[in-house]
Amino acid sequence: MAGHHSLDWAFIIGVLGNVISFLVYLAPVPTFYKVYRKRSTGGFQSVPYLVALFSAMLWIFYAFVKTNSVLLVTINLIGCAIETIYIVMYLAYAPRPARIFTAKIILLLNVGLFSLILLSTLLLPKGSNRLKVLGWICMCFSASVFAAPLSIIRQVIRTRSVEYMPFMLSFFLTISAVVWFFYGLLTKDPYVMFPNVLGFTFGVVQMVLYVIYKYMVRKVVVEPAVAKDVLVINLEKAGVELQVTAEEIGDGERELKANEGTNGGKKGKMGEEEGLEISPA
User: Fold this and answer.
1) Domain count, the chain
2) Quick check: 138 pLDDT over 80?
3) Residue 263 — φ and ψ, nearest 5°?
4) Residues 207 and 167: beta-carbon distance below 8 Å
5) Separation of alpha carbons 267 and 88, rounded Å
6) Which of 85, 79, 87, 61 is nearest to 22 (CA)?
7) Which of 9, 14, 184, 230 can bridge 192 by disulfide, Cβ–Cβ 3.0-4.6 Å?
8) Can you give the residue range of the structural domain that contains 230?
9) Domain boundary at 216, 243, 259, which?
10) Do 167 and 75 lie in a common domain?
């Protein structure tokens, strides 16, 4: 009875894990909507989504080898479909160097390495060893999925901007890691359980960074003082450049006005004298 009760709880938590993981897959939708509107990926990175697609492919293979793991199959099939859509959108709007880099990673990781793992796992290990080998491979790459956002974390720290690290993605990633940890615990599957410890850790780190750089760190824009204080005059004919400070310009203006006043006074006196000379008797 106790084992049956534990299995029921595992199924319930597994269904909950499917729902939350589905929300994790949908969390980047606002980011990709911005990419679609701008017709540009900006500083957006494709690596986390390539690694997530690869991990989902591995977990589907693991679930088929293990058998009786319908919940793992369903959510990872959905994950493969959604991640593929994201990658296609990225390839559509990314600059040429980013598209080339992404295509290389797809060929090396999602095609080449996955095919190698698939063939070596089917041919080399036998019996229960096959599941162990595949489980360790899945566990390592699940850890890499959670570590993939390190590139985004580095970008957030460098640019002091959280534009490409949505808070909801980090939040649902953390909750998903907690749920799948308990699913692995109840089903006695260490390959599902242990990677989610790392997932929880990175999720918390991302949320903390989001709060820091969204609400606590302010960007300071410093305008160069030269733009205000120096007037640059290009003398094309002479082939030289003259830099005059604002103070010198002010002094020059005052001297010019003083000269104009003096000249005006002289002109007034001359006008009067001339007026006396030509006036009628």
Assistant:
1) 2
2) yes
3) -65, -35
4) yes
5) 81
6) 79
7) 184
8) 226-278
9) 216
10) yes
pLDDT band at 238 (very low <50, low <70, confident <90, very high): very low
Query: Which token pair is 120?
Result: 């070596």
| Residue 272 to residues 258, 263, 264, 279, Cα–Cα distance (Å) | 21, 14, 12, 10
Question: How far is it between the farthest Cα atoms of the chain?
Answer: 138
* 146-191 pLDDT per residue, tens: 766 666 777 788 878 777 677 777 888 889 899 999 999 988 899 9
Q: How many CB atoms lie within 10 A of CB 144?
A: 17
| C-alpha dist (Å) from residue 211 to 23, 164, 168 | 21, 14, 12
* Position 86 confidence tier, pLDDT thresholds 50, 70, 90: very high
If asked whether residues 182 and 231 sit together in one domain, one would say no
Instruction: Output the CA angle 171-177-181, nearest 5 degrees.
Output: 155
Length of the chain: 281
Q: What sign results for the dihedral spanned by CA atoms 24, 29, 32, 38? A: negative
Residue with tokens 């990673």: 105
Tell me if 73 is assigned to some domain: yes
Helix (H, G, I), strand (E, B) or coil at 231: strand
Q: Is residue 221 part of a domain?
A: no
Among residues 164, 188, 216, which one ends one of the domains? 216
Residue 70 tokens read as 């319908």
Q: Are residues 206 and 140 in the same domain?
A: yes
